[in-house]
Amino acid sequence: MADWLLLTRMEVANRGDLAAALAGSLGIAPTANINPERKYPSMFEPIHGSAFDITGKGIANPVGTFWTGAMMLEHLGEPEAAAQLMRAVERVTADPALHTPDLGGTATTRQVTDAVIAAVQGKNA
User: Fold this and answer.
1) What is the rounded CA–CA span in Å between residue 42 and residue 44?
2) pLDDT in tens, the chain (125 residues)
3) What's the predicted TM-score (pTM) here?
4) Disulfide-capable partner of 46 in 22, 64, 71, 115 (CB 3.0 to 4.6 Å)?
5) What's the CA dihedral at 47, 31, 10, 25 to 10 degrees?
């Protein structure tokens, strides 16, 4: 298994969407375009992008955004903060009551976001 793949932007979009769908939802996958030499900025975003089709409906799964944030923190040299955020995401996603509609649940974007924030703050140990 490879840790890295060198792909064109279109290949990344196609393979990323496929991998996210196989994992259960486009809403959970992170992605990044990383410049390892750090000569140019790196870009981090959830694999689903902006998801304009569901904006304002309260059904977007924010897990991909949080996971992407953890990747960015790691890249920026903040491994402890990245690990803390990932532990919060893992704790929240383990609870079926906090699954958004894309995962077959009924939780809202706000409920999942609030749960991740509480987990980061240590309020739902």
Assistant:
1) 7
2) 446 667 776 676 666 666 666 666 666 778 888 888 989 999 898 877 777 888 899 999 999 999 999 999 999 999 999 999 999 999 999 999 999 999 999 999 999 999 999 999 986 55
3) 0.79
4) 64
5) -30
